[in-house]
């Protein structure tokens, strides 16, 4: 018999059965690592004859870590939404599905969290991102912060702009488009954004 919890945590079973289970050998199976989760996803996707971009597989593996069943459920949910709404399978769709399905125990990400992590990464004072400075590192930090706010919060582009440099929604849309475009062609930039996202998840 297998179970996803220890005998002492099983509910609704007769005491005599629980006692017998406790006598048996209990072997705890650890959660799969990120790399193993990626392999599981690739196998599932290949087996079902599907195609997912590498960044989508990476995102799912890094954010869905409870069980293999959860991974398979996410793949099915993404495929279903893509088919029903005729949407391309991309990172934005994966983020939408994962946020709706996975009940994360971590605190919800705020724009303040994003600004602190981004500014720390670029070695900037928090106030710098709210100025009208056109210095390359300030502009890039501001655009990445806007992109992450759009991806990780439920705020409208107008609200995001107000909180980040007091910009209008068109500026936020342009920033998101710029970052998304650069992610597709610049590997070093993509690695940098992934590092910032990783720091955001690990924030204390």
Automatic annotation (TrEMBL):
GO cellular component, one term: plasma membrane
Organism domain of life: Bacteria
GO molecular function terms attached to this record: ATP binding; DNA replication origin binding
Record protein name field: Chromosomal replication initiator protein DnaA
Domain Chromosomal replication initiator DnaA C-terminal, first and last residues per copy: 110-179
Species this protein is from: Bacteroides pyogenes DSM 20611 = JCM 6294
Single Gene Ontology BP annotation: DNA replication initiation
InterPro entries assigned to the protein according to its UniProt record, in alphabetical order: Chromosome_initiator_DnaA_CS (IPR018312), DnaA_C (IPR013159), P-loop_NTPase (IPR027417), Trp_repressor/repl_initiator (IPR010921)
Transmembrane segments annotated in the record for this chain: none
């Amino acid at each position: 018999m297998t179970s996803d919890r220890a005998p002492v945590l099983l509910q609704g079973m007769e005491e005599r059965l629980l006692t017998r289970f406790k006598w048996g050998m209990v072997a705890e199976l650890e959660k799969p690592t990120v790399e193993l989760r990626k392999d599981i996803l690739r196998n599932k996707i290949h087996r079902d004859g599907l195609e997912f971009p590498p960044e989508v597989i990476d995102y799912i593996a890094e954010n869905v870590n409870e069980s293999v069943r959860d991974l398979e459920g996410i793949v099915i949910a993404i495929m279903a939404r893509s088919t029903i709404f005729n949407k391309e399978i991309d990172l934005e769709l994966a983020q939408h599905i994962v946020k709706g399905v996975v009940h994360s125990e971590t605190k919800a990400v705020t724009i303040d969290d994003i600004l602190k992590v981004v500014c720390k990464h670029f070695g900037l004072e928090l106030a710098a991102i709210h100025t009208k400075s056109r210095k390359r590192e300030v502009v890039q930090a501001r655009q990445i912060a806007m992109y992450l706010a759009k991806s990780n919060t439920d705020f409208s582009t107008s609200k995001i702009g107000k909180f980040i440099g007091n910009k209008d929604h068109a500026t936020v849309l342009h920033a998101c488009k710029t970052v998304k475009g650069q992610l597709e062609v610049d590997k070093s930039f993509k690695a940098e954004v992934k590092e910032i996202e990783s720091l955001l998840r690990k924030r204390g």
